[in-house]
Amino acid sequence: MDTLVQVQNIIAATLGAPLARVHPQSKAADFPEWDSLRHLVLVIEIEQAFGCKFALEEIAELDSVEKIVTAVQQRVKS
Length: 78
What we know:
This protein has four helices and no strands. The longest helix has 15 residues, at 36-50. By secondary structure, it is mainly alpha-helical.
């Protein structure tokens, strides 16, 4: 499974949103359920799924599917 699909699945599951609503262009503002608490849970789920860690100052910047995928790909390069 590629990174985008994994991230989309994690976002949908964490937010309790239908997978069909989570697109590569989706942003936090597109989801009323993507509040500050869910954002932290989402970051933890992403870190666990991909075995990476984000710096505290980066976490707030991870506010879209595209940004999350890019950040993950930068950390898990082969």
